[in-house]
Amino acid sequence: MIPSLGPHADFIVASYAVTAFVVAALIAWVVLDYSAQRRILGDLEDRGVTRRSRRMKD
Questions:
Q1: d(Cα 16, Cα 9) in Å, to the nearest integer?
Q2: pLDDT reported for residue 56
Q3: What is d(CA 21, CA 27) in angstroms, rounded to the nearest whole number?
Q4: For a Cys staple, 9 with which of 1, 5, 23, 38, CB 3.0–4.6 Å?
């Protein structure tokens, strides 16, 4: 059984909906940015640019 949300039900439901939308948008942004950064890193590596952390030790 779902409890009654009282007179502020519209505000509560709208708040949860906006929060869910913002969280979903942030997750989508992170996923898209990750793929873009991986693509940029791949392009740089294809051109011969290496990461300092991967340099060979003398």
A1: 11
A2: 61
A3: 10
A4: 5
